[in-house]
Structures are given as structure tokens and as C-alpha cells.
Amino acid sequence: MSHNPPLCYCGNQKPFQHCCQPIHIAKSRAETAEALMRSRFSAFCTQNLSYLVATHQPPLGQKTPTEDEYHSENQWVGLKILNTDLGLKSDNSGHVEFVAFYTLATNDAIEPLHQLRERSFFEQHNHQWFYVSGEAGSRVKISRNETCPCQSGKKTKKCHPHWLC
Ligand SMILES: [Zn+2]
Ligand SMILES: [Zn+2]
């Protein structure tokens, strides 16, 4: 992603240093399930695998994935939050539905766009949100006049027209 000044990977209009990074280094807390979701996306983008493991607490009896299992070669290009349900500061749990866009190699000028759509379940324990589980959803349509999935702020047709489907 090329931004000037660079904005956070998660799509918030703040630089990483004032958005997800303080959460990654435990200088601040993700106060909502959505904030944790965004910080986990930024952790995928920065290959912060230990953060992904630390913020994943699967249902009882299931194993948390290892850092190796979290490793991926995906080149994440952007995140779009589709819907949230509870998951606020005062809630014990909540859902966030999102679509994460990625390519399989770095040259996004020619690489096709892939997407991961999920409705994720989060729980809060002792003021800390955790990712619990997720259900995959169907692909979203990329439209011409919508903001490009790469978070450039431009319309898709003007930015990455080969991603239109
Ligand atoms: Zn962020
Ligand atoms: Zn774009």
C-alpha cells in the first residue's frame, strides 16, 4: 500500500504508530471486538505472528494455532468491516463480519485480487478481547465506483481496474 503519510494497514485514517502498533506492543488496549479485529489484520500485514497467537483463544477443547500455522505468504492489501454485532467495551462477546483482500505476490498492478470473508466471534476476558472462531462467508462484489480494496481512497476503476468482477 502506498499512502502519504502512510495510514494504518487496518483501514483507519490514522498512521500505524497511532493506531494498531500501540495495541501490538501493549501500550494501549483494543477496547472493542472491532478494534481487536483491526489490530489482528495489521498483525497479519506486519507478520506479527506472536500477537496473532496471543489474541486467539479458541473454544474449550480446541488448540490455539501455532505461529507456524499462522504464517502465510498472502500479501494483504486491505480490510473492509461489513458489520458488527455487540463487541463494545461493556460487552462480553461480539461478532465482526469483514472481508480481507490479498494477492499472492507483491506486484498488485497485475496480480489478481483474492478475498477472505468471515464472520468472527470474539470474547472479552479481564478487559482483553480475544478472537474465538470464525465462519467463512461468500465473496463480496468489487464495484467500479466504490473505494478501491487497496485503501488508496480512489475509486476501484481508477486504481486497480483489473480487480473488478
Ligand atoms: Zn490500525
Ligand atoms: Zn487500488
Protein model, in words:
This protein is α+β, with helices and mostly antiparallel strands and 165 residues long. The protein has a single domain, classed as Nuclear Transport Factor 2, Chain: A, CATH 3.10.450.50. The chain has 5 helices and 4 strands. The protein has helices spanning 21-24, 33-45, 49-54, 67-70, 156-159, and strands at 75-86, 93-103, 114-125, 128-136. Strands 1-2-3-4 form a 4-stranded antiparallel beta sheet, with helices on one face. The longest helix has 13 residues, at 33-45. The radius of gyration is 16 Å and the shape is globular. The site of one zinc ion has 5 residues, from loops. The site of one zinc ion has 7 residues, from helix 2.
Output the keywords.
Nuclear Transport Factor 2, Chain: A, 165 residues, alpha+beta, 4-stranded antiparallel beta sheet, binds zinc ion
Brief digest:
The chain is of the alpha+beta class and 165 residues long. It is 19% helix and 27% strand.
**Strand elements, count:** 4
Unreliable sequence segments: none
Bound molecules: zinc ion
Rg over CA atoms, rounded to whole Å, is 16 Å
Please state the structural category.
Answer: alpha+beta
Largest sheet: 4 strands, antiparallel
Number of helices: 5
- Reading side by side through the largest sheet, how are the strands ordered? 1-2-3-4
- Regarding quaternary structure, what we see is single chain
- Please identify the top-level CATH class: Alpha Beta
Determine the fraction of residues in helical runs and give it as a percent range.
Answer: 10-25%
Portion in beta strands:
25-35%
What's the shape? globular
Number of domains: 1
CATH topology: Nuclear Transport Factor 2, Chain: A
Order of helices and strands: HHHHEEEEH
Distance between the termini: 21 Å
Query: What is the residue-averaged pLDDT?
Result: 95
